[in-house]
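Re: beginner question about structure tokens

> Can someone show what the tokenized structure looks like for a real chain? I only ever see the sequence side.

Sure, here's an example I had lying around. Input first:
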Amino acid sequence: MKKLWLICILLLPFAKILAQEKFVIAGTVTDENEEPLIGATVHLVETFQGNITNLNGHYQIPEVLPGQYHLVISVIGYESDTIAIEVVEEDLTIPAQLKVQVMALQDVEVVVDRIIERTSISNISFGKKALQTSQGLTEDPLRTLSALPGVGRDGDLFSPSQIYVRGGAPEENLFLIDNNKVYFPYYFGGQKSIFNTETTESIELLTGGFSAAYGNHMSSVMNVKTRDGSFINPGGHISLGFYNASALFEGPIKKERSSVLVAFRRTYLDLFLDESAEFPVPYFGDVTYQISAILNENNKLSFSGLSSEEAIDFIAADPEPGLPDRLDTEGKNHFQSLQLQTAFRSNCYNKLSVTNTLNRNTSQVGNNLFLDIDAWQMGFRDDFTCFLTNRHTLKAGLAWQYGTFDFNGNLPLDPLQTDLNDTTIVLRNLDIHEEGEIIRSAYLLYDGSPIKRIGINVGLRLDQNPGNKYTDLSPRFSVNYQLAEQSKIRFSTGLYHQFPGSEGGSDLVSSLAVHYILGYEYRFSNSIYGWIEGYYKDYEDLVYYDEMLNYSNEGHGSVRGVELLIRKERGNLRGWISYALSHSERRIPLLDKIRDFEFDQRHIFNLVAEYHIPRGEKQWYIPALVQMNFRYADGRPYTPVTGAVNDGTGWTAVRGEPLSLRNTDYHNLNVRVEYRYSETKRIRISSFFEGWNLINARNILGRAYRYGSEYPNNVKEQPYYTTPILMGGGFRVEFGGE
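And the corresponding structure tokens:
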């Protein structure tokens, strides 16, 4: 009984807090002309409670306990304001009026370099810390994006990182580094992306309805923004992971005026395993760098780049199913960008980029794939942004590229025949040389709120390929309507063209996808939001070919679907739940029929959760972070081999209806645990452990076939599967830093 009384006494202070009435602080933020300021941040210094203003400039902070606080209001381009307030026994209405401030280069750079604008839909973004905790054992940020609604990929740890978005093919996605196009951002034909999380500031993804600023792709836009090195203190890290070792150094060249960042990565398995290994041992190494200089308060110059090398040398007399009997690849890639960013007249900003890209790759994969590629592109892109008022923004841009492309190789005539060792597959030979202007582009768009509660983005884009005489005009439009403080509906439509590939010519026109997207967004709290979207993509003028390799624009198709996302961004517990229901179908080359597209997945469910564990400084033995990632997806379509015949010269496969069967459903559960140890303020040590496929699901990746009279119907099917349970880890030592 005494213990019960003691507990009651100890709980009295907390009971008093719980019993206290809570109040609401609300108001409207305007400029000096009493125009509402949209997207202003309003927060209480003492409690970190806050919100952002809506299209009417209105904000609301609920559940505030009585007390004295400092209310801080800030927005890009205006002087911030701090107001001392006291909450006593009633709700408060606190209006604020902000004065125009000369635009700071760093602030405006953050705003205008985003591909996600205030009227964007189908969007999500990740900062550096979120990417580091969810990139997986292969340390690839694209693995994070594959857990988002509508994003599909092959399910194995070592299968390609290539993503297919909302039923589209991988080549329909546009990849950017600091708004500049990257042509093939992968190693080993797609197994791992070139992006280094350690040099990444953020990643943004638009899975549809993107603005006129980006074009010549039909499905999605992903922008990787690289970060500057520290302008204040030198620092860096050394780490060893499951897949590769890495090191990074950053620091000022001239304090507060210029900086350098250099990062190195290299795989290390090839150092321990020789050519006699029973599986392919890949090697890659790269260096990423950025030098930044603040020339004056209005101009910043940056030079960045990536140089990489990759190779695999593997030969097997009797390989496992799914492995080629030969894999010999070698590649070198270089990407450089020089950027000048300028803020002027207190409300305008310009970014000029000059880029250079060089790709040299040769590959011999099994019996059916030989590639020899030598490509070079150079060009420029200029983007101009003017904030007419806080409610009205005008953007315009130009781009031009010139290059050469040499391609020689053998590819399967039917791209659905993917068995790399199958000698019965009919091959086509390609020998392509192109030189000249690749693209001319221009765009103009308006983003703003001409009417209260309504935000729109309307733009027009022009893309030209002078060599093949393609000219595409692409209007885009999106709108959102603020229903209430926490909710809005949004709609987007537009034309999205894409030039034909290397097989194209002047007789073809660009492929076209028309997007229609309708969504509803609701913010449950400052840290939790969600949206549901329905979409329809209508494909027209897709490149189609017959057995004689006659190309035409007779291909067509469609994708329809619904997606749901609920995400928690802050607090110790973070993560998201996503679900996508879709159906993608197209007219299949070499078959005059509509079929489920090879990248069609009807159901995709993802659950990503991470918990940051509070702990004391000396409790190093307690994990700092535990993360779980679960994914379910139904199987993609495939074309079965139903038998084989021998005409005396060899076996010929008898194939069933194209894409008539589906793989079994996919399940996967991964868990990651991180430990952090602080030796000194200048040296920080951490480690991680990760379990892959902890439920040991046998997810089918594909099928290989053997032919002979000893098998039923003269064929033996050999399925191959994703990686079983696998444990891995690594450690990291950081030094210096701000």
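Each token stands for a local structural state, so reading them left to right follows the chain. The two ends are 54 Å apart (CA to CA).
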